[in-house]
Amino acid sequence: MNAMTLEEKMTAPNSSVGADAEQSGNNTNTIITDTNDNFNICDESFRRMQMNFLRELDSSYIKTVSMSELYERVFYSNPPIIDGLLYSGTYLFVGAPKLGKSFFMAQLAYHVSTGTPLWNYPVRKGTVLYLALEDDYRRLQSRLYRMFGTESTDRLFFAVSSHQLGKGLTEQLSGFIAEHKDTALIIIDTLQKVREASGESFSYGNDYDIISQLKKFADANKICLLLVHHTRKQKSDDNFDMISGTNGLLGAADGAFLLHKEKRTSDKAVLEISGRDQQDQKLHVVRNRETLAWELEKAETELWKSPPEPILEKVAKFININNPEWQGSPTELVSVLGIDIKPNTLTLKLNVNSGKLYNEYGIRYESKRTHSGRFVRFLLENKNSRDDA
């Protein structure tokens, strides 16, 4: 006998035995007579819910989302760590040994922990953990004093030892984040110090798995994990192919920074940046001989900025300190905003731009569908947002 399909399982009769079965007729007629549209809607929703539950249990079923369903969802994107430069996720910072990578890491860590703009890039302030695994505290003290003088911050933390990946590292990092809820950036200098020794250290699969584990941790905690790594000596037409190891490292990472010089004795270097969700950049930087900090000389490409979204600006003027919360139907929202747009088109635009609405205006947006229809809700959470109306 062939196995029953999901539909057959759902529609197969399930009558009881004995006296119950004999008394079923009149009750069924009464139910059919009393059925109304609302009951049909509830019954259909319940049937779909049961179908979805059975599909989850079926290993042969592949879960899909239609384009229309995708547009119905609201996703919250994490604000940038350094706007236009560094975002939440897992990144490689790669360069030849003794090139000044650790000074660059100290500079990034200090700027994020103080919220000070880096060159012409806005910075979101947050706690930073710097695992300086090739240094000691004396050298760190000397380096920081040369770079920043007596200026200090209590949001920047250092460690010169840690466990390895797979042997307690993520548990240590989780403990730090639990104590410092505003952690934005964790720097691991270097990746080689925390990767577990393996007979397949240089296989694509092993490299990909290492970064995937770290990326999963970074994504779950909504932080940026910056991994310092080395280049290999072989030249390549694509500079990113010079990353030591296999392409599995870059393939699993969200992006990479590559610092290189034409002449090792020169104070000038090129910083190339490539990422999944950001514009590729090439920055020319020069090292200050007095402080050894890196300074921006020029950028080869101007950063592309997405044009303003008029609907978001309308919402930001409506939701403000004097009116921090509102909820209602999309039709009512069209009316209060005074715009000529179909309600369903308005909710689609807001769904897609919900992350931008929160990151740029500090307004959280929610959209829900109930039996009485769809309603949307706005809540001003970040009253200090730079674009707050």
Strand order of the largest sheet: 3-2-4-5-1-6-7-8-9
Q: What helical percentage do the residues reach?
A: 25-40%
Structural category: alpha/beta
**What characterizes the major β-sheet?**
9 strands, mixed
Query: What is the chain-wise order of helices and strands?
Result: HHHHHEHEHEHEHHEHEEEEHEHHHEE
What is the rounded Rg? 28 Å
- Supply the number of helical segments: 15
Distance between the termini: 67 Å
Average residue-wise pLDDT: 83
Q: Please count the beta strands (DSSP E, at least 2 residues each).
A: 12
- Poorly predicted spans: 14-35, 384-389
* Overall outline: globular
Roughly what fraction of the amino acids lie in strands?
15-25%
Q: Which helices and strands, and how do they pair?
A:
Blueprint: H1 6-11, H2 19-22, H3 24-34, H4 37-57, H5 67-72, E1 89-95, H6 101-114, E2 127-132, H7 137-148, E3 156-159, H8 169-179, E4 183-189, H9 191-194, H10 204-221, E5 224-230, H11 248-252, E6 255-260, E7 268-275, E8 278-287, E9 294-299, H12 310-318, E10 325-328, H13 330-337, H14 343-352, H15 354-361, E11 363-370, E12 373-380
Parallel strand pairs: 1-5, 1-6, 2-3, 2-4, 4-5
Antiparallel strand pairs: 6-7, 7-8, 8-9, 10-12, 11-12
